Amino acid sequence: QVQVVESGGGLVQDGDSLRLACILTGHTDEYKAAWFRQAPGSEREFVAALHWNHRLPYYARSSEGRFTISRDKAKNTLYLQMNSLKPEDTAVYYCAAGTFQYWNRGTAGDPTNYSNWGQGTQITVSS
Question: At CA 78, angle to CA 30 and CA 34, rounded to 5?
Answer without folding.
Answer: 65
